[in-house]
Amino acid sequence: MAQCKPCRAEPSAAEGTESAADPPRSEPGPMRIALLVRSLVSGGTERQVALLAAGLAARGHDCTILTFYAAPSAPSLPGVRIVHLGKRSRWDVAGFVLRLWRALRDSDPQVLYALLPIPNLLAVLARIGRPRLKIVLGLRASALELRRYDTLSRLAFYAEERLARWANAVIVNSEAGRRHARERGIPEELLTVVRNGVDLDRFRPTARAARASLTDNPGAVLVGMVARWDPMKDHRTFARALALVHDRAPEVAGIVAGDVPPPAREELTRLARGAPLRWRGWQDDMPALYAGLDLLCVPSAWGEGSSNAIAEAMACGIPCVATDIGDNAMLIGDTGRVAAPGDPQALAEAILEFAGMEPALRAELGRRARARIAALCSTDAMVENTLAVFAQLWCR
């Protein structure tokens, strides 16, 4: 059994938001830790899992990532085992659960940390066969509009809500997420805020070489949206805002990165009413994409906890405009602008304010944005705060 060095008091909300400037903490001895996630594709949660696993391994912990599905290009994570459980479809249940239990038997973790509803449910159920296994659940969203999702997603959410009290700890990545978890009935004593981490060496201001692949207009003002195709991300409000911006500032062009399907692209192009709009799909080199932008826009309608896209763009020196959802306003501070959700006119006005700025002023906001995110979202703080939660489980 892992030993605490020394046994610490329960992490507080303040500790969950500490910056890289805070003094280092005492860490637990080497632990066997498994992380359970759907896959290691390019989404925000998946990037957080990869960052956390790398940080755990670098600190001498035995770390295994268990994924439902194999990713086309998994990240290289020295010292981390990646086990693909070979889930074939959403109906592959019995065989998949058996493979999960076998993987847990083989890796023999002391702590299982799951992220997102389905992995969270499976983690709680894993205690049936391994009662000494410590279970930590990861909640990544704030208030979701469940009526906009399918029946299986809604059932998973409700089941997660009821089973969460059987976990040993629950990690949320935002204060908004903590408030929402309390409203869902998850006990306060289980909750700890651990903010997302950003790899500041990877996400940093760089030469804008990618800009040539984004536009052939040297005078364009490029506004990017980086998001999966999901109702909460509200691509439609982004397209409508671009249409309003185009009427007054035709030099502004939109760039959308993510898994937007062709029929949705056609709809969004119509909503943009002639505003330039380009599609990039998921990018392996996200820092280069951010570096090619003048502004990042996050128009989410609901559900955001702590936006990875905002933090990554700010780390690259790119100012942001976002809706006032989750912890977006706290992340951005005075380095960008926040608009009401679902309001294309308000979003357009915020974009136009940046489009009309002198480049030197946008650059200064970018420098301030990087400094702010370095203080709020360092990888070291994320790893150490997560380890503090794991260590406390052995002190109870």
**Radius of gyration based on Cα positions:** 21 Å
| Alpha carbon gap, first and last residue | 13 Å
Shape: globular
Helix-and-strand structural type: alpha/beta
**Strand residue percentage:** 15-25%
Query: How can the largest sheet be summarized?
Result: 7 strands, parallel
- CATH topology label of the largest domain: Rossmann fold
**SS elements, strand count:** 13
Instruction: Estimate the mean pLDDT confidence.
Output: 89
The CATH class of the largest domain is identified as Alpha Beta
What is the level-2 CATH architecture name of the largest domain?
3-Layer(aba) Sandwich
Approximately how much helix is present in the residues?
A: 25-40%
Q: What count of structural domains? A: 2
Number of helices: 15
Write the CATH homologous superfamily of the largest domain: Glycogen Phosphorylase B
Q: What is the string of helix and strand elements?
A: HEHEEHEHEHEHEHEHEHEHEHEHEHHH
Instruction: Identify the strand order in the major beta sheet.
Output: 3-2-1-4-5-6-7
Task: Identify low-pLDDT runs.
Answer: 1-27
List its traits:
alpha/beta; Rossmann fold; 2 domains; six-stranded parallel sheet
